[in-house]
Amino acid sequence: MATLSRLALIVAAAPLLSGCVAAVASGAASVAAQTGFSSGATTATGGPSADAIAARQGDVAPLAVSFSSTMPANLVGARKVFIPAYGVSYIHTQNARAVSQGGLMGGFGGGSTRTASVRTGLTGIRPETFQMVVDEAYADLLAQLRAAGIEVATAEETAAAAASAPRVAGNTTDGSVGSTILGGASTGWRTLGAAQAPLIAGVSGEGAGGGLGGLAMIGGNLAMQRVADVSQGLVLAPLLRLDYVNVSSSGRSLLAGTANAEATAAFSVAAGTQVAYAVRRPGMGASDIGMAMVSQPTASAEPFATMRASGGSSGAWVGFGTRSDAAVEAVEARWVALARAAYRGFNAGIVQQVRSGRPTA
User: Fold this and answer.
1) pLDDT tens by residue, 216-233
2) Is-contact 7 123, C-beta < 8 A?
3) What pTM did the predictor assign?
4) 172-209: per-residue pLDDT in tens?
5) Residues facing 204 on adjacent strands
6) Residue 7 clears pLDDT 70, i.e. is over it
7) Least confident of 21-35, 71-85, 121-135, 235-249
8) Residue 209: left if φ>0, alpha if ψ -120 to 50, beta else—which one?
9) CA–CA separation, 269 vs 341, rounded Å?
10) Among residues 56, 60, 199, 208, which one has the fewest Cβ atoms lying within 10 Å of its Cβ?
11) Which pLDDT score is estimated for 61?
């Protein structure tokens, strides 16, 4: 994996693949690899140029992030809100590979394998910009909550309540999920925590889910529960996932077989975006914990990147493959505008949930 100075994105988040789900505008930059009977090819479709993207001005409207599960209104109540952690997971690599097994040689004791793959990475964003975005996102949530008339704990109150919470070393964690060895998709990310609300271990998108990642989540839930017990408030730990590309793959086992893989530049709030919550239920001895989830991505049609691709083909008639490697080269100013639209929409969804359990005037 390239270093941060080479890859302008980094992220950790929930254990979900992110590719081939977000809607994108026609004309977006894309690359593809196709392998057929006896040959392969890579193609690239150009979107707006970097200069044209850079010339676009103004903010992007907040994205309408939709939660598939929410915080129960009867738990939220009129409690003070504590936010001991806020993270943004930046997806930085997305790969897809199609594998097909043709039947032309099958009757003679053999077979023909065709593969096509695309490998992508996000570039063009400075490392400090990622930290700027997560710090802004945390401050924006505090501001939106207060503007809605919701009491928010001070930094000192939050630090005292979360004193026992295990923090992620360096306030940064990496994760990945999926494999393309037998076909399919894989995703890599890095999560950064806000400087004033650093990551809590177990609720920061570590690993790929299950195994050690699952054990870490149990520990994170217990940590959130302890913070709620101490604070007697509503404790939130938001985790926003930002994606930069759609990837897809398909294959057909017919005669010699065909395989196709494609990647299209697309900014989105990715599936797996979530807010962990903990709150003491009246009359109960321990706090309730849970997560409000985003299961479907929310994409923007705003152009933000070009794609630079390279690739080639290899193999023989009974085993042929085509690969395309693509750098998704973001125009930083437009990527930042989209990131702000993402966190504003995500935070607005959180505020809406918090307000739903409060009495109206």
Assistant:
1) 677 788 889 899 989 989
2) yes
3) 0.84
4) 999 988 888 777 788 999 999 999 999 999 888 775 44
5) none
6) no
7) 21-35
8) left
9) 10
10) 56
11) 96
Give the phi and the psi of residue 71 in degrees, each rounded to 5: -75, 130
Comparing 150 with 361, which gets the higher pLDDT?
A: 150
Per residue, the 3-state secondary structure of the chain, as one string, reads CCCCCCCCCCCCCCCCCCCCCCCCCCCCCEEEEEECCCCEEEEEECCCCHHHHHCCCCCCCCCCCCCCCCCCHHHHCCCCEECCCCEEEEEEEEEEEEEEEECCCHHHCCCEEEEEEEEEEEECCCHHHHHHHHHHHHHHHHHHHHHCCCCECCHHHHHHHCCCCCECHHHEEEEEEECCCCCEEEEEEEEEEECCECCECCCCCCCCCCHHHHHHHHHHHHHHHHHHHHHCCEEEEEEEEEEEEEEEEEEECCCCCEEEEEEEEEEEECCCCEEEEEEECCCCCCEEEEEEECCCCEECCCCCEEEEEEEEEEEECCEEEEEEEEEEEECHHHHHHHHHHHHHHHHHHHHHHHHHCCCCC
List all residues 6 or more positions away from 190 whose beta carbon is below 8 Å from its beta carbon.
9, 10, 11, 12, 89, 90, 92, 130, 172, 173, 174, 175
Higher-scoring residue by pLDDT: 44, 96: 96
Q: Say if residues 145 and 354 touch (Cβ distance below 8 Å).
A: yes
Amino acid at 185: A
Would you state the pLDDT for residue 35? Answer: 67
Torsion angle of C-alpha atoms 200, 201, 202, 205, degrees rounded to 10: 80
Report the C-alpha gap between 153 and 158 in whole angstroms.
6
Give the mean pLDDT of the chain: 80
